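Q: I have 282 residues here and want to know how they pack in 3D. Can you give me a structure?
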Amino acid sequence: MAKITAGVGCSHTPAIGAAVDLGKTETDYWRPMFEGFEASKKWIKEAAPDVVIMVYNDHNNAFDFKMIPTFAVGCADEFPIADEGWGARPVPIVKGYRELAAHIVQSVILDEFDLTIVNEMEVDHGLTTPMSLMFGEPEAWPVRVIPIAVNVVQYPPPTGNRCYNLGKALKKAVESWDEDLNVMIFGTGGMSHQIQGPRAGLINKEFDKNFLDDLSRDPERLKDIAHLEYMREAGAEAVELVMWLVMRAALGEKVDEVYRFYHVPASSTGVGHIILNADNNE
């Protein structure tokens, strides 16, 4: 059967993708950050996933304020790259896995967890930035991707606990798929940052480090962090970290931490990254 073998936590600030596209990864500003992902690119190439479930948030490109689903699953064969106002990123079209996505939708909805089914969807930097960081600049992405978009744009976003339970439901869904597949799940966004108002530029390294620590050792604590605590301690956009909790819960109770990286500055974001192997013997 299919197995979720590992999870990746990764920031997705658009400036990272722009640095790749404009050939600025070797500049003094960007080099230290991109060097932190060299080990990750080697690791994922050796681990060779067949499918990536990408938990991310749309930034008013696939959706807008006329319609914002709390959780949406992309069920198409492919996902074009969105034009976010400066042209679509020059990266490959994202290939989906429609049959597995439909199975996940059926399993999770019949498990009483409502999802929005999206059969046609463009994807933005929330999805493509982590792909570039982990897979580099290939002519075609080496994996099929199932996008899961989470609303963290308009209040109220889902709670950390709800996201954690979604991860559990995804694990159950994947493991009931009768095909030998190496599946990985990415949780994206964050870490601490605020992009507007008098607190713009806020970075809380201690909050970020504690979050990374507890992804491995105490994820139950993280699922109880309230929206207001994210905002107060780590900035308005830090609520994106609830998407990392979907990833963590999908790995099961026990994990092995493979790699961790944290870097400031990268635009206005504390860039966090972690790789966790699932213990599929539990």
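Q: Anything worth noting?
A: The longest strand covers residues 255-266. The longest helix spans residues 160-175.
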